[in-house]
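Quarterly update, task 2.4: coenzyme A-bound model.
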Amino acid sequence: MSEAVTYQVMPANWHDLNALRQIEKACFPQDAWPLWDLIAVLTLPGVVRLKAVIGEEMVGFVGGDARPAERVGWITTLGVLPTYQRRGIATCLLAACEAEMDLPCVKLTVRRSNLGAIYLYQKEGYRQTSIWPGYYPGGEDGLVFEKWR
Ligand SMILES: CC(C)(COP(=O)(O)OP(=O)(O)OC[C@H]1O[C@@H](n2cnc3c(N)ncnc32)[C@H](O)[C@@H]1OP(=O)(O)O)[C@@H](O)C(=O)NCCC(=O)NCCS
């Protein structure tokens, strides 16, 4: 069992850019976002951005694109530094992002091979609804999951 750690979930902002870059590099070796996308997720209106923090260190991040006109929110990124995985941090970030977007339907895409993330989403009530063939760099399929609240 993992050592217990105390973390807090709180809003992120552009001051978190460097920490977010580190999380992206560590969590998404194939799919790390370019700098512009990281700036956008930390600054654009209509985006929910939450970080998990232990002490002074940002250890996890979730981004949510709220689309109230469509009554849908998209989870656009979710990552936890490898050292701090399997402690419930992503579950907590996901729930907080869902609550803050406060929309009836939440959707996301995940690589077909990303079983850890798929288990997490299924555990949290997401169900696969479609496949986007070749969606990811390298040609891997994206699985689309959604959850009704
Ligand atoms: C996927 C990810 C966000 C999960 O973060 P986490 O903080 O470790 O997740 P949690 O601790 O909240 O996991 C909750 C449950 O999800 C499932 N789960 C999470 N990671 C898993 C893994 N690697 N293997 C199997 N099940 C996993 C388990 O059921 C877990 O519960 P348990 O630890 O009691 O068994 C993290 O592994 C990560 O950042 N991966 C790289 C980036 C990524 O793939 N993001 C998702 C893109 S769609």
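Highlight for this quarter: The mean pLDDT is 96.
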